[in-house]
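This section describes the prediction task in plain terms. A model, or a person checking by hand, is given the sequence of a single protein chain and must write out its three-dimensional structure as a string of tokens. No templates, partner chains or ligands are provided. The sample shown here is typical of the held-out split.
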Amino acid sequence: MCTNNSLCDPDDPVNPIPSLQLERKERILKGAFQPKLKMYPRTQFGNRARSFQSSWYDDFSWLEYSVKLDRAFCFVCRMFNTAPGLNAGQVDFAFSQKGFKNWSTSTTKFKKHQNSISHNFSMTAYHNFSNCKPIDVTLDESRLVSISEREKQRLHNRNIMHRLIDITLCLAKSGKPFRGHLEKSSDVWPQNAKYLSNHIQNDLLTSINNVMKRSIEKKINNRLVTIMADETSDVGHHEQMAVAVRYFDEDLCKPVEQFIGIQRLTAVDANTIFNSLTNKIAQLNINWTSVIAVCFDGASAMSGKFNSVQSKVKEINPSAMYVHCYGHCLNLVLVDSLGNKNRVVFDFFGCVQLIYSFIEGSPVRHAVFEKIVNETNSRLKTLKTLSTTRWACRAEAVTAVEKNFSSVIQCLEEISENTKYSEVRAKANGLICQMKNFNFIFALYMLKPILIQIQIVSAQLQAPNLNLLDAVSIVNALKKSISELRNDEDNYSKLYEKVLTEDCYKN
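The expected answer:
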């Protein structure tokens, strides 16, 4: 192999001849080299004798032939196969040092070598040398190309992650599962990262959660906040406490409510709730000294004067105020005014709950109700249960009975006629008698408009952007509307006459 950048004698690829540099360069690389000999030595391959062909020069500009060795070489691989160390472990020694002589497969081997990585690197090094580029410039260009490719791949991966985050947020908001029935590969995703593993999905959820927490922490940093909390049991019978913070946003120039997470409770005593609440707000670097108020429901463990959560908060921060939730206050007023003192309403709600429990508590009885509803083309298909804590839900239960009134009567009558159990027949007949009672029908028509208004007000009181003045205004408007209904004698007269004209009551 040559030890300098001169070109070599085609008759002897080991010894350079400086006087033939330009001539040799032009002849080889332009494919115009005409050999001195017209005939080449033949070698026996099987039953045929083969030799080097001068026509190969036209197809492969890098090809050269040594008369002394009767072998073919690659000019660029002989001269530049070590530049700049890129060909390590990939050099084709048959064309760079030993020489190629298997003329029976020459064309195939020449094409394979021409497309090899080592040959392409050598050609790149030769062209850089021909253009007189210094080695540091070549290395810089190679480095820039590598950086550009990595940046392109990084941006592509980032776009994929943006799409995955959008999908995750969409699934989380809609409560949909992450895994489905169709998980085929797509050209959009990288071959080595499908993101289908539950561990990867959990890591993605954790990362989104951490980013959201840092964003919330940045917004409420060094601000006075109000802590709101309420607990309830989930479908797994685990007690869960939802925690939210309320603060004044200077950019929006208004108070903002921010949900910060759910904390599972192993007990519902004041110490456990207070410690869990302390740990939750500590995740956002909130301490009780920066809390100006706490908002809970009226449970004794939360709002009691002694040994409650709000009393423990005041032990740390005496200036912190306790605010009773307006939504819970509305429910308490309804319980005191409608739930116990008025026996007609008390019996009405009990009957509504019995209707739901009797029909929906048995798949067979529900099937009978569903059949009758489909036959009568009723708009509502199911009954609703009452809620002991959320009185706004009772509007849905009452509306379901009112819309399905005739269907419920027919369902109970069919169950009473076809059942084989005496206690089921007795319950069905009792519910029929109760539903056709004047007090039940009167309470049904009287409570429906009241409960609908309460449902609207309850939903407005739970709005995250609600302020104190709007809350007071909404409650006052509800009180005024209910007072007008109470003082309107014509309304009660019309309601009384409507109940008397009902077919079910006359029957």
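For orientation: The CA atoms of residues 31 and 59 lie 8 Å apart.
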